[in-house]
Amino acid sequence: MDDFKPFIAKVATGAALSREEARDAFDTILSGEVTNAQSAAFLMALRVRGETIDEIAGAVGAMRGKMLPVKAPPEAIDIVGTGGDSSGSYNVSTLASIITAACGVPVAKHGNRAASSRSGAADVLTALGVKVGLDSAGTERCIREAGVGFMFAPTHHASMRHVAPVRTELGTRTIFNLLGPLSNPAGVKRQLIGAFSETWLEPMVKVLASLGSTRVWAVHGSDGLDEITTTGPTRVVSLENGRIESFSISPSDVGIAPARPEDLRGGEPEQNAAALNAVLAGEKTAFRDIAAFNAAAALLVAGVASDLKDGFARASAALDSGKAKATLDALVKASNA
C-alpha cells in the first residue's frame, strides 16, 4: 500500500504518469494491493486533471496483462460502446454484431450488464436465450459455429472486482469506463467503438493505434448516443493504415430518414429482446435502421464493404434473407452446448 502512495502524490500535483508508471499503478490496483481510499483518490485525481494517452495505454496494458484471453480469427471485429450515455436506447451494438456476423465477418463482442441503461449487452442476450459468462473455449466455439461470440467482462477481466466497489461508491465516470472497450479479450485489431463523449474519440483511437489496432472507427452521435445515431449526424474518428482522420456521417448517407429520439428508446431486457426478435423477423423499425447503419460501418471497418451504402445493402440483405435470425439461433445453440 505504501508503494502506491508516490503514484497518488504525483497525479495530485497535476503531473502526468509515463506509460510504464501507469501500467505499474494499474497493475497494483488490479492486483487488489491498494485500499479503496487510495484507488478512489488516484482515479479522481486522474479524472479531474484529465487522463493522458500514455496513462490510458498503460492502464489498458495492465488490463490486458491480467485478462482471460480468447482466440479469434485475425479478421474478427468488435462492436462495442463505452456505455454511460444515459440514453436507455435499444441494444444497438448487440443487434449490429449479429447482423455483421451474418454477413460473414467474425465478431468477438466484449460487453457487460447494464451500467447507465436498463439493458446491457449481457442482459438482452440472456433474455434472448444466449448463455453468457462462458469460458474461453465456450466463446471460441460460438465464434466458430455461429460467427459471433460474447465475452462477458467479469469472466475475462476478473481483476476488475478489486475496483468494482470503488466505482459504485464514486458513482461517476472514471478511466475504467474507457478501458473495457479498449481491452477486448480476443485482441481484435478492428473495432467499431462508441464513446459517451466526443472528447474521447481521438484519444481512444490513438491508444488503439499505439497498441497495434489496424482499422478503427470511434463514434459519437450528435444526440449523445455511444453509437452511430439515426437522429442526426455522427462524429467519427477513424484509423486506417496508420492514418487518423475525423469526419461526420448522417443517416441520409445510406438513404434512411432521420429517426426521433423516442423511436430509439428501449426498456427492460425482455422488451429489448422482443424488439430485436421483431427486427430479425422482418419488422421495419427505427431499431432496424440504426442497427443496420452500425453494421454497415462495421462491414466497412472489416474491409468487406466498399462504402457505407454497400455495407447497408449487405446488412439489409442479411436481415431480409433470414441470415441474421439464423445467426442468433446458432449463437443460442452454441452457447448452450
UniProtKB/TrEMBL annotation:
The keyword Aminoacyl-tRNA synthetase does not apply. Mg(2+) 2 binds at D226, E227. Catalyzes the transfer of the phosphoribosyl group of 5-phosphorylribose-1-pyrophosphate (PRPP) to anthranilate to yield N-(5'-phosphoribosyl)-anthranilate (PRA). Pathway: Amino-acid biosynthesis; L-tryptophan biosynthesis; L-tryptophan from chorismate: step 2/5. The gene is trpD. Residues 5-65 form the Glycosyl transferase family 3 N-terminal domain. GO terms for molecular function: anthranilate phosphoribosyltransferase activity; magnesium ion binding. Keywords: Amino-acid biosynthesis, Aromatic amino acid biosynthesis, Glycosyltransferase, Magnesium, Metal-binding, Transferase, Tryptophan biosynthesis. Homodimer. Binds 2 magnesium ions per monomer. 5-phospho-alpha-D-ribose 1-diphosphate binds at residues 81, 84-85, 89, 91-94, 109-117, 121. The keyword Lipid metabolism does not apply. It catalyses: N-(5-phospho-beta-D-ribosyl)anthranilate + diphosphate = 5-phospho-alpha-D-ribose 1-diphosphate + anthranilate. Anthranilate 1 binds at G81, N112. This is Anthranilate phosphoribosyltransferase. InterPro entries: Anthranilate_Pribosyl_Tfrase, Glycosyl_Trfase_fam3, Glycosyl_Trfase_fam3_N_dom, Glycosyl_Trfase_fam3_N_dom_sf, Nuc_phospho_transferase. Residues 75-324 form the Glycosyl transferase family domain. Belongs to the anthranilate phosphoribosyltransferase family. In the C-terminal section; belongs to the anthranilate phosphoribosyltransferase family. PANTHER family: ANTHRANILATE PHOSPHORIBOSYLTRANSFERASE. GO terms for cellular component: cytosol. Mg(2+) 1 binds at S93, E227. One of its GO terms (biological process) is L-tryptophan biosynthetic process. It holds the Pfam family Glycos_trans_3N. The lineage of its organism: Bacteria, Pseudomonadati, Pseudomonadota, Alphaproteobacteria, Hyphomicrobiales. HAMAP family: TrpD. Anthranilate 2 binds at R167.
